[in-house]
Structures are given as structure tokens and as C-alpha cells.
Amino acid sequence: MDNKNVANQLTEYFKKISFILPALILLLLLTAYPLYQVILMSFYDYTDKSNPVFSGLTNYMDFIVDPLFWNALKNTLIFTIVSVVMGLVIGLTFALLLNQPINTKFRAVFRALLMFPWLTSTTVIAAIFMLMLNPFGLVNKILGGLGFMELSQMAWLGNEKTALMGVIIANIWRGFPFMMLMLLAGLQTISHDLYEAAEIDGAGFFTKLVYITIPQLKNIIMTLVVLEFIWNFRAFDLVFLMTGGGPMDSTEILSTYIYQSAFRTLDFGYASATSLFMLFVMLIISLFYIKSSISKEGE
């Protein structure tokens, strides 16, 4: 009888495995094998494209001493941190507004309008902001109308001092609706009894925000910060479309830097080594996310 039970359990086990096996094979073909190829390529010198030569850790040493790499890393961190922090602040602000007891139809319309940037393709967003930030765009017309004549002819994306700021603003506009939606969902789970008790004790808006709202949203905020950090750290499309990493490498981030190394200079070994560094950083951040998820399940 015991042997029969074991046989039945094994049959059920292999039946379950058979359902996920095609997906596992596809995952290996699309992820594991290309990753293996990238790791392998990072140890080769592709000066002679038809006959790459094994170079050991040379590619890794090269990007460590390359000032362009450190410039791209600095821009990536600025781009990521500012986008995450400002996106969180703006998302929380709008989530708090939408959580107020206002007309339900007005709230639904307002929420739909605020979701528009997140639903819009990156190409369209890039085109909108390129038109707004060009010397004859909407931003300069507004500045000219306000009397800032020196700034009214500024090529915001063509100036190395302002280009990164312009790309970051576009990225924040694209990303904040997702944070807003997640935070709004979290706000709607907070018991009103907590706020009523705080109001009886004389607590104002900011006191309730600091001591009730934010602590109650802590897990959601931590998850959003980790996910948004990963997504923004590996961002490519918006920066590539708006500036291509220029002018003068002022908006060059790691993803565009790797693209330039691989497909412009055709230095595949160097690009592979740099991309593995980027992967390593994202894996570390992902571990924090996994640890946070496990700890929340245990609570």
C-alpha cells in the first residue's frame, strides 16, 4: 500500500513538472544560454571580429579605469535616485488627493487622466518632451511670457548642463502614475478608525501623514522603491530616444554606454563585461526585494 502511495505521488509530481517543463525550456533558451554567451564573451578581445582572442580579466580592468564608465555610472545613479524619490513624492501626493472623500465620478475621471503617462508609449513621451524642450517649444514660450528672456531660447536637451534634468523630468512624468496607483490601493486599506482617533487627540494632516499613513504604507513603499530602482537603473529607451547619451556624454547612462560599446565601436567583450557589472548591481537590489517579500510573508 505504501509503495502504491509513493508511486501515485511520483506520478503526480512528474505530471506537474510536465506542465511547467515547456516554460522552463523556453526560459533556459531565452535567458540562461544568452547569459552564458555574455559571460563567455566578456573574457575575449574582439579587436579582430573574425578571430576573438582570450584576454582574461582585461575587459573588466578596462572599464574600471575608464572615465566614461564612471561618468555613465554617475549619471545612472542620479537618473535613478532622482526619478525614484520624486516619483514617490508625486505619486504619494496624488494618491492622497484621490483618497479624499470627493465626488466619485470626478475622482474616476481624474484618476484616468493621471494614468495617461503610464499608458503612453515611450516613443510618444520622448517626442512630446523633445517638442516641449526645444528652443521654440512650450517651455521656452512660457518662460518668455514670464519675463525670463535669457532662458526663453535655451535648447534644454542640447545643453550639457540641463539635458539630464530634462530626461529625468520626462522619466518622472512617465513613471509616477504606477506609484500613485499602488499607493492609492494601500491608502484604501488603512482603517479610518486610526485617523479618527488621531483627530480626537488633536493631530493635524502632517502628524497623521508621518505617524499613521507612511508607517502603514511602509511595505508598499519599500517594494516600490526597490522595483523602481531596478527599472530605472536599467532604463534605456527614453534616454536613447531623447538624447542618445549626449550632448558631450552628459546623459550617457550605463545602458546607452553598453549599447555604444557593443553596436557603435563593436567592442563586444568590453560591452559584455560592463553589462555583467550592471547585472550584478541589479541582482544585489533584487536580493533586497526578495528578502523584503519573504519577511512580509512571515509577518
Give the SSE layout.
Blueprint: H1 2-41, E1 44-45, E2 53-54, H2 58-64, H3 67-98, H4 104-114, H5 116-119, H6 122-133, H7 138-145, H8 163-187, H9 192-200, H10 205-216, H11 218-233, H12 237-242, H13 254-264, H14 268-298
Antiparallel strand pairs: 1-2
Helix pairs in contact: 2-14, 3-8, 3-11, 6-8, 11-14, 13-14
Write a concise synopsis of the structure shown.
With 299 residues, the chain is an all-alpha fold.
Number of domains: 1
Q: Assess the beta-strand content as a share of residues.
A: under 5%
Q: Low-confidence spans: pLDDT under 50, at least 5 residues? A: none
Main sheet makeup: 2 strands, antiparallel
Helical fraction: over 70%
The CATH H-level superfamily is MetI-like
Strand order of the biggest β-sheet: 1-2
Query: How confident overall, as mean pLDDT?
Result: 88
Structural class: mainly alpha
For the CA atoms, what is the radius of gyration?
25 Å
> In one word, what is the shape?
flat
Count of helix runs: 14
Distance between the termini: 40 Å
Just give the CATH class: Mainly Alpha
Find the CATH topology. Answer: MetI-like fold
Q: Order of helices and strands, N to C? A: HEEHHHHHHHHHHHHH
- Report the CATH architecture: Orthogonal Bundle
InterPro entries: MetI-like, MetI-like_sf
Organism: Peribacillus loiseleuriae
Transmembrane segments: 20-44, 77-98, 110-133, 163-185, 220-242, 268-290
Keywords: Cell membrane, Membrane, Transmembrane, Transmembrane helix, Transport
